[in-house]
Amino acid sequence: MKVKFHPEARVELREAKRWYRDRSPMVAIAFAHTIEHAIHEIVAAPHRYPTGEHDTRHFVIPRRFPYTVVYRIRQTDIVIVAIAHQSREPEYWRDR
Questions:
Q1: Which residues, including other chains, have CB under 8 Å from residue 47's CB and lie 6 or more apart?
Q2: Which end of the chain is more exposed for a tag (fewer CB within 10 A), N or C?
Q3: Which residues contact 96 (CB under 8 A, 6 or more apart)?
Q4: What pLDDT digit, counting tens, does each position of 35-65 carry?
């Protein structure tokens, strides 16, 4: 399946990478690899992860980084709706 990003999810990812890079380039690289791995896992088994409201599924990043990849499964693709920081207001992305 093809992966597409909602424009605001792409901005969230860029901002998170920048935040980590400003603190430590090595941690920023680890964060980027973690997100890439999460997306790979989602593509490999998109129905494996828990469902949420608004026809979404949630891949919670384990341990080190407090983020959740929120996505929707479409017929031919997966849409990343949010790269959501876990301390941010819940479901702020629901109108996407």
A1: 57, 73
A2: N
A3: 6, 8, 9, 81, 82
A4: 999 999 999 999 999 998 889 999 999 889 9
